[in-house]
Amino acid sequence: MDPDLTLFPHYASILAGTANASYLTSARTPVEFHDAMTTDDLWDLHTQANITNTASTAANPPSLLDLKRTIADRLYTSCVLCERRCHVDRRTTPGACKTLEAHVACEFLHYGEERVLVPSHTVFFSGCTLHCAFCQNWDISQSTSGDIITPTELARRITQRATQGARNVNWVGGDPTANLPYILTVLHHLTTNIPQVWNSNMYCSQETMQLLSGVIDLYLTDFKFGNDVCASRLASIDNYLAVVQRNHLLAAENGDVLVRHLILPNHVDCCSKPILDWLADHLPQAAVNIMAQYHPEYHAAAHPELRGSISTTEYKTVAGYAESLGLHLL
Q1: Sheet harboring 218-222: ordered strands across?
Q2: In angstroms, rounded to a whole number, what is the distance separating the alpha carbons of residues 96 and 126?
Q3: Residue 163 class from Cβ within 10 Å (0-12 exposed, 13-18 middle, 19+ buried)?
Q4: Using the 8-state DSSP alphabet, how is residue 275 labeled?
Q5: Burial environment of residue 18 by CB neighbours within 10 A (0 to 12, 13 to 18, 19 or more)
Q6: How many angstroms separate the CA atoms of 254 and 246, rounded?
Q7: pLDDT for 64-100, tens place per residue?
Q8: CA gap 201, 247 in Å, rounded
Q9: Are 215 and 23 a contacting pair, CB within 8 Å?
Q10: Above 50 in pLDDT, residue 203?
Q11: Which domains are seen in the chain, by residue range?
């Protein structure tokens, strides 16, 4: 076994064929509900189902996965999928994420992810819950682009990619959060035992995190900022730190976690070190990837400290600091 896989026991067990992907367990967990029930009642059932988690071989609905789909569809009509909580009906009005119906910018076997993930079937959505001035995927994250692919067709492609060697389905963007109802519907049509990876900036709502529990096997997170001032100034977002810290803790309760941190030039002390300190104190078991590939993109030139690349000294400082904290570096 790849020694790095020992950091991801649940994910590794699915790859080894000794465990089912979480979404399959949810799809086989029976839950009795009907459309006339209130959303509060549906949430109560969701909590009870997660507590009892009585698996069944029954392949037909109603199931816990179907319940999650129903709740997600209701959240979509007054959207609270991310912590911006726009409360718009996203069937007719785009939220701050700029998305209505899910648009897939591209999907392919990706060999550029972390070694434990490749080849990874990455599904890139357009739109994003953040508006980072330095976004390197700004052409898809800050606009609506790509194709509308039916859930049944994407499920077929996932099955096909698995036969081509895909080790996982990697939901990314932009950010996948705005497209949660669509993703759950794709999984409704899927039967392949393949790990599900949530590749996200983690600014999703607590409701979204609840729906992801029992669906996602590995959380591939993007921990960007070490304080709210930088987050507000560079990503136009409020209350960043509390939301993202909460969601990392919830992720660790429900799956494996791989934290990415992109070093920003001139942000070692205000962002990189505080993030690493928090991880060492609260998620010491998590794997961490310190990323050095920042380059000025999008509106980075509007911020003088972001106009250049990071220095060798900055990378060595951050990587050395992470090592000194005893973090598991990939």
Answers
A1: 104-110, 120-125, 169-172, 196-200, 218-222, 256-262, 287-291, 328-329
A2: 13
A3: exposed
A4: H
A5: exposed
A6: 13
A7: 999 999 999 999 999 999 999 999 999 999 989 989 8
A8: 10
A9: yes
A10: yes
A11: 3-329 (3.20.20.70)
Look at phi and psi of residue 98 and say left if phi exceeds 0, alpha if psi is from -120 to 50, else beta: left
DSSP alpha helix (H) spans, the chain: 9-15, 22-27, 39-52, 64-77, 138-141, 151-163, 180-188, 206-212, 228-235, 240-254, 273-282, 312-324
104-110 and 120-125 beta bridge pairing: antiparallel
Give me the pLDDT at residue 49, please.
Answer: 87
> How do strand 256-262 and strand 169-172 relate by DSSP bridges?
unpaired
What is the reported pLDDT for 58?
A: 47
What is the structure's pLDDT at 1? 60
* Average pLDDT value for the chain: 95
Please confirm whether the linkage preceding 265 is cis (ω < 30° from 0).
no
- 308 cis-preceded (ω within 30 degrees of 0): no
Whether 57 has a pLDDT exceeding 60, the answer reads no
Q: What's the token pair of residue 10?
A: 């649940």
Q: Is 300:131 a contact under the CB 8 Å cutoff?
A: no
**Residue 2's pLDDT is what?**
80
